[in-house]
Structure formats: structure tokens, C-alpha cells
Design brief:
heterodimer, A: about 190 residues, mainly alpha, 3-methyladenine DNA Glycosylase II, Chain A, domain 3, Alpha-Beta Plaits, two-stranded antiparallel ribbon, two-stranded antiparallel sheet, extended, B: about 550 residues, alpha/beta, Rossmann fold, 6-stranded mixed sheet, 4-stranded antiparallel sheet, 16 helices, about 40% helix, binds iron/sulfur cluster
Chain lengths: ~190, ~550
């Protein structure tokens, strides 16, 4: 009984120390500019900008190491917003980093999945659920469409699917770009 | 009468009201005579009902039935999710065929999740409720009956009624019952009042009892004299002095909540606020009748009156249809299309939207089906540049600057459009109607609003992704630290022993033993190699052989 209590106590103290240390070690003095830039980035965390994620890219922009046109998922809208924030001129997306396309998500073909967990380790936003030797699946609402999980999959069972247009995310077209809807009757 | 539970003295109605005028607005040809004089007709029972899970503002309802279930009339088939939402009920008895995406009444023409019921023609109901005196019911129960009946604003917006009533959250000085038709052509509220004044008035009394306003007004329009006399007769019969009846001039859009409040009281609802913010509640008459049905007859909202009109249909009229009835059947009930029909609109001529197909169901908020001919509503000529005539500004009943909104929206300067109160635009269409350059102004505003909502949604999604990403990084780091701490501890423990090496050896031996034991155990637990057929055993042997050969081969070279 006493040993159990002691063991628990020691464990608690240890974990407390680790957490305390982590809190100090990983405390970031938030730089307001980085913060603001990061807010404008789409948080896809895909790394197409050549940085390890959106925040590192934001830091690089703030430090003057990276240009503002390296984020394909954000596309023109993000570039314009960054230009606006930083008082620079907007420029076209640098094609070296990829092309802007509509947001997609991925699905896992659950019949083919072998449960290797490699995709889980690749997903930057924990959007995949599964466990070793169990079927995996993607939480659609949380998938950012970064496609980072696709290369590690040994059986190629992860597929990109476009986001279906739904009434909830439909946008009235600007006049001029609408279809001429006529009544079909009879 | 157990009025003691909630004593409420009805205030005396004011005999005369000084009316006000809202900014802008239009005098439009009413086109209501076409349908206002003919009685409401019941639509025939359709073979199939299609009930979209979202027929209201707020969260879509959650389906409670499965394909194959039999349902009776009034049975809840989907329940509300969260506070701002409304449930659904089976409009008649039958069998649930499917829960799937079907085309619905929406400007996008997209499909949405629907419950499909095959009707059995028997119209079996559940238990019959005993009629009650609503004064005997506690307030909670009253509100609950309204909530459980799935009532939403039937005037068109579809805001869940129980939320709007706030069920006594705030003191209410004025309860307005809106019988002013929202748009030209529409006469469903007019007919309802003419034919069911008793239900409407009883519904008003229930609402009055729930919100306990200082004053209660039913607002009707000039030119609704038949409806007015029906209401007056009913009020006189009940000797009701607590409810007053006020006629407002026929200016479009007096049926708009904010405009009606302005006309009746001279007060303005604050920008982006609600009438409740200034102590007022506005309810449509159709909603009032639905409240009566819910509280007194305990019947949920399963049908509504729809004005089927326009020169494109043979016999324009008001039709009462079960929610979920296909629009095509209402058109058929109104004599079918005329030869010259050009477009089909859901809603009125000012705020309605065109749909490509009539294979869509009637919903709780569908007040009008308008089939127009080209002569009646010519396609607008191509838009020309804005000449800054400011006619739109003069016409805007929301007192906005439509011209500015247009410029900002066109140049995608949505922040500026929002600063110019884009979200106060009620999309009434007055500006576009008067614009000499025929600019489809409202569509610009609809686009801008949707665009802003989408952006907000995206911001929320990316904030969430950031949080998840940060949480993940933190977790990985923590695991790393913990592992490092464990390793360090082990090292220390080993180093702490005397360096004779004996204890180290013992520890290594113990570890090896553990591994060995585990191996044996795991071996023992692999069960899938027992009970093999001869064929399987052969395959395994062959594979083993190959492996041995290849390993000797690789050892050779
Ligand atoms: S599931 Fe795949 S595509 Fe989606 S966020 Fe995770 S790694 Fe990216
Ligand atoms: S009415 Fe039309 S042309 Fe005149 S100011 Fe408004 S948008 Fe411009
Ligand atoms: S549609 Fe909007 S901007 Fe145009 S008149 Fe109506 S409220 Fe004003």
C-alpha cells in the first residue's frame, strides 16, 4: 500500500516536473507580427511553402526570409491579405510551390487499409483516427486537405476527394457569372 | 378558469394609432385579387412526401426514423438540434422509404438531406389529444408545446418560434401580429384570416398570455377589408378589448418586420439587432394559427397554405398542402401550367428566386409558388453602368446606401460593404426595381453576404486547424520529454549500483528472460496457424523453403 502510494507520488512529481519544464522550454514570446501573419495563413500545414508548417512560414516572412507568395492553398486571397498587412505590393503566386486549387479532403478506402498507422503519424492536425492493425478513417471536418498522409501509405488507399458543394457552403454567384436558370416544366 | 396560475390582466386596446412612415419603399401593383377571393383548397394527398431536414434558420434537424419504419400522422420524425432549430413530424401515416438527398427549394438547385415517406392514404393519427384550456397549463408546458410542434416563422424567414418568443426572458411592451402580406401576388395570410379568424385570434391570445405584452396589435393592410371584418367580428364575439387592429398603408415592404415596427411605433430596430432588443415581438398570422393548433389541438405543424399564382398557371389560388408535397402537384391542383409560362419562382416577385424544376417539396416557409409569363415579368435588360442617380438610396426601406454597397461589392471590398451595414439589407429588391441601369443589385448583396459568411467559416476552420496542430506538436514534445526522463532515470539507477557488474549482469539476464517469456507467450497466442488444411500447410512449407533458400543464397554471396 505504502509503496503504491509512494510510486504514485513519485510519478506525479515527475510528470509535474516534465510539464513544468515543457511549459518554460516551449513558451514562445508571441511576436505580434508573426501572430498576425499566422492568422492570415490557411493553416493547412502542408509545407508547400517549404517550411514545416504555417507558423514557421509566418516566422520566416516576419524575419524577411520568405516571400509572401509561397502558399498555394491560400492563393491570391492570402497573398493580397499579407500584402495588405505588411504594406507590400501583391504579386502572383510563385509557381515553384504549386498551384492554387479548390480545397479538397481525403478519404481512406477502409476495405484496403491495413492499419499501419503511418498516415496518422503524418497528419499535422490529428484528423485521422485508427490504431495498429485497425481500420483507419479520416474525420472529414478536420482534414485540411494537405495531402501529407498520401505518400506514406504503403497500400495507396488514401484518395483525394473534392468537397461536395452543399447548400450550407453555397455562395450566390456575382451577377454575370450566374447560369441562366429557366423554368423546365411539363 | 385557473387564471390564478398566471394572472394577467389584458390591457385595453388603444382606439387610435398615429402611424409613421418608413424610409423609401414602393407602391407596387398588388396582383392579389387573383387569389384573394377564392377559398383555400386542399391539395390532394400525394403518393410520396419529401421532407427536408432543414426548413428553418439554424441547425438542421436530426432524423429519428429509419427506412421501413411505419409512421402515423404527427409522429416526430426528426428532432431539433441545439437551441435554434426545429423538429419535423410525419404529415400523414405511411412508411419511411428512404433518407437521402433530394432536390429542394433553394436558389442553388442543390440537393439536401430529406426524409421520404410513402403515404398509405389512411391518415392514421396517434392518440387523440384532449382539448385543454391553455390557462391551466404552466408556462413551460405552453412553450414546450410550441417547441415540440416544430413551429417556425411562416412568413418566409423560418426562425424557430419558441426562440423568438424567448418564452418570457425579457419584458415585452408590444406584440405585433403581422397579417400584412410580404409581397405582391401573395394572399395566403389574407385567405387564412378570412377563413380561420377564430383560430388566428385564439392563437394571438395564447401568444399574449405567454409573452404578456403591454400592448398587442394585429396589423393588416389597406385593401384587406374582408379579412379585417372577419377579425373584427371575432374580436367582438370574444369581447376582446386587449387586442387592437390597425390598418397600415399598402407600401412595399410594410410586411417586413423592421418596417412594420417603424410604421406602427416610429421606433427603429437597432442595426443588426432584433425587435426583442427594443421590447417588441413580431409574429406572422400563419404562425399564430400554428400556435393555436399546437397548444389547443396538440397538432404539430404539418401543413401550410401556399399561394399558387401568376399568369403561368391556369387557376391561381391558395392551396393548403402537407409539408413535403411536390410543387408539381400544387401546380396540377391549380390547373397546370399555361402555354406561355416562362419561369417558376419560389416566393414573391421581389424576393423570390427562380428554380429550374418543379420536382421539389413544399416546405414550412414556402408561402408562394409563382409561375410567370414573359409578358408578366420580362427578363431584365442587360445591366448598364451605374449613373449615380441615387434612386436606389431613395427607395431603400432599410435606409442604406445601395449604390455604395454595390461599388464595394463589385470591387470585392467586403469590409467596406459591411461597414455600410450590408447585413441590414433585407434583400427586398426595391433598389434593383427602381434602378434605371437595371443593375441586379440584390444579387450583388446576396453574393457579398454569402462570401463574408464563407470567409468567417474558413477563419473558424483554420483557427481550429491551428489549435489542433499546436496541440499535436505539444503532445509529441511531451512524449519525447517523458521518454528522455525515463531513460535518464534508468541510466541513473544502473549507474547507482556498485560497479562490480554482477547486478548489471543480473539486470540484463532478467531483461533477456522477460523477452524470452514474452516470445513464448506470443507464440502460444498465435492461433491462426492451427487447424490448417493440407493445402495451406503445403503453401506454408513451400514459402518456408523459399525463404531458407534465399537466405542461404544471400549468405553465399
Ligand atoms: S487527413 Fe491527410 S490530407 Fe487531411 S489533414 Fe490529415 S494529413 Fe492532411
Ligand atoms: S439606382 Fe442604379 S444607377 Fe442609380 S445610383 Fe442606384 S445603382 Fe446607380
Ligand atoms: S435590397 Fe437591400 S439595399 Fe436594396 S432597397 Fe432593399 S434593403 Fe435597401
Amino acid at each position: 500500500m505504502l509503496t503504491a502510494l509512494l510510486a504514485l507520488g513519485v510519478l506525479a512529481a515527475l510528470i509535474g516536473l516534465v510539464l513544468g519544464y515543457a511549459a518554460i522550454r516551449f513558451h514562445v514570446d508571441s511576436d505580434p507580427v508573426v501572430e498576425q501573419i499566422d492568422k492570415l495563413l490557411p493553416q493547412t500545414q502542408c509545407g508547400q511553402c517549404t517550411y514545416a508548417g504555417c507558423r514557421p512560414y509566418a516566422e520566416a516572412i516576419a524575419a524577411g526570409e520568405a516571400d509572401i507568395n509561397q502558399c498555394p492553398p491560400g492563393g491570391e486571397a492570402t497573398i493580397n491579405a499579407l500584402a495588405d498587412l505588411l504594406g507590400r505590393d501583391p504579386k502572383p503566386l510563385n509557381p515553384e510551390h504549386g498551384e492554387h486549387s479548390e480545397k479538397t479532403v481525403v478519404i481512406i478506402d477502409e476495405q484496403v487499409c491495413i492499419g499501419c498507422t503511418l498516415c496518422i503519424q503524418a497528419c499535422p492536425v490529428d484528423a485521422i483516427v485508427g490504431a495498429a492493425k485497425q481500420m483507419h478513417t479520416v474525420i472529414r471536418d478536420e482534414c485540411t486537405g494537405c495531402d501529407l498522409c498520401i505518400p506514406p501509405c504503403p497500400v495507396e488507399c488514401i484518395h483525394i476527394v473534392p468537397l461536395q458543394p452543399r447548400i450550407g457552403n453555397w455562395v450566390w454567384p456575382q451577377p454575370g457569372e450566374q447560369d441562366d436558370r429557366q423554368v423546365v416544366h411539363g | 378558469m385557473a387564471e390564478s396560475a398566471r394572472s394577467f390582466t389584458r390591457p385595453a386596446a388603444q382606439p387610435f394609432r398615429q402611424l409613421h412612415r418608413f424610409h423609401g419603399g414602393l407602391k407596387l401593383p398588388g396582383h392579389r385579387e387573383i387569389t384573394a377571393a377564392t377559398p383555400i383548397r386542399q391539395a390532394p394527398m400525394p403518393a410520396q412526401l419529401v421532407l427536408p431536414l432543414q426548413q428553418h434558420i439554424g441547425e438542421p434537424a436530426e432524423c429519428l426514423v429509419q427506412p421501413g419504419d411505419t409512421v402515423y400522422r404527427g409522429q416526430p420524425i426528426a428532432r431539433q438540434v441545439g437551441d435554434i432549430s426545429a423538429g419535423l413530424h410525419a404529415p400523414t401515416s405511411g412508411t419511411v422509404l428512404a433518407i437521402e438527398d433530394r432536390p429542394v427549394a433553394h436558389p442553388s438547385g442543390l440537393q439536401a438531406a430529406c426524409i421520404i415517406i410513402e403515404t398509405d392514404g389512411e391518415d392514421r393519427g396517434g392518440k387523440t389529444a384532449t382539448r385543454v384550456d391553455y390557462h391551466d397549463l404552466p408556462l413551460d408546458e405552453l412553450c414546450d408545446r410550441i417547441r415540440a410542434a416544430g413551429i417556425v416563422g411562416l412568413g418566409g424567414a423560418g426562425f424557430p418560434t419558441q426562440v423568438k418568443l424567448g418564452c418570457n426572458a425579457r419584458p415585452v411592451k408590444l406584440l405585433i401580429i403581422n397579417a400584412v402580406e410580404c409581397e405582391p401576388y401573395i394572399a395566403c395570410d389574407n385567405r387564412l384570416v378570412q377563413e380561420r379568424a377564430a383560430e388566428v385570434i385564439e392563437g394571438v391570445r395564447i401568444l399574449q398570455y405567454i409573452v404578456q405584452p403591454t400592448e398587442c396589435i394585429i396589423a393588416i393592410e389597406d385593401g384587406m377589408s374582408a379579412a379585417e371584418s372577419a377579425l373584427r367580428a371575432e374580436l367582438a364575439r370574444g369581447n376582446d378589448t386587449g387586442i387592437s387592429l390597425t390598418r397600415v398603408p399598402e407600401i412595399y415592404p410594410s410586411g417586413g418586420e423592421r418596417q412594420l415596427i417603424k410604421v406602427l411605433t416610429g421606433e427603429e430596430v437597432p442595426s443588426q439587432g432584433f425587435p426583442a432588443d427594443i421590447g417588441m415581438i413580431c409574429q406572422n398570422v400563419g404562425t399564430t394559427a400554428a400556435v393555436y393548433n399546437a397548444v389547443i389541438k396538440q397538432q404539430p405543424l404539418v401543413s401550410r397554405i401556399v399561394t399558387v399564382t401568376g399568369e403561368g398557371v391556369a387557376q391561381p389560388q391558395n392551396i393548403e398542402a402537407l409539408i413535403g408535397t411536390p410543387v408539381s402537384q400544387l401546380i396540377a391542383a391549380a390547373g397546370g401550367y399555361n402555354a406561355h409560362v416562362d419561369r417558376l419562382l419560389i416566393g414573391g416577385p421581389m424576393m423570390g428566386y427562380a428554380v429550374a424544376n418543379d420536382d421539389i417539396p413544399v416546405t414550412k416557409t414556402m408561402n408562394c409558388i409563382l409561375a410567370v409569363t414573359r409578358d408578366e415579368m420580362p427578363a431584365p435588360p442587360p445591366a448598364e453602368p451605374c449613373i449615380r442617380c441615387s434612386k436606389c438610396t431613395d427607395a431603400c426601406p432599410a435606409d442604406l446606401l445601395p449604390q455604395q454597397l454595390y461599388w464595394y461589392t463589385r470591387s470585392s471590398n467586403l469590409d467596406a460593404a459591411q461597414d455600410y451595414n450590408l447585413f441590414d439589407c433585407i434583400e427586398c429588391g426595391c433598389c434593383a426595381y427602381v434602378c434605371p441601369s437595371h443593375i441586379p443589385l440584390v444579387q450583388y448583396y446576396r453574393h457579398a453576404k454569402a462570401e463574408i459568411w464563407t470567409r468567417e467559416q474558413q477563419t473558424r476552420a483554420s483557427d481550429f486547424a491551428r489549435q489542433r496542430h499546436e496541440a499535436r506538436l505539444e503532445r509529441l514534445e511531451r512524449i519525447k520529454q517523458e521518454r528522455a526522463a525515463r531513460m535518464a532515470k534508468k541510466k541513473q539507477a544502473l549507474a547507482g549500483e556498485d560497479d562490480s557488474g554482477a547486478s548489471k549482469k543480473a539486470a540484463i539476464q532478467a531483461a533477456l528472460d522477460r523477452v524470452k517469456r514474452k516470445k513464448e507467450q506470443s507464440h502460444a497466442t498465435t492461433k491462426n496457424t492451427e487447424n490448417l488444411t493440407a493445402e495451406q500447410q503445403q503453401l506454408i512449407d513451400a514459402a518456408d523453403k523459399r525463404r531458407r533458400e534465399s537466405s542461404t543464397q544471400s549468405a553465399d554471396d
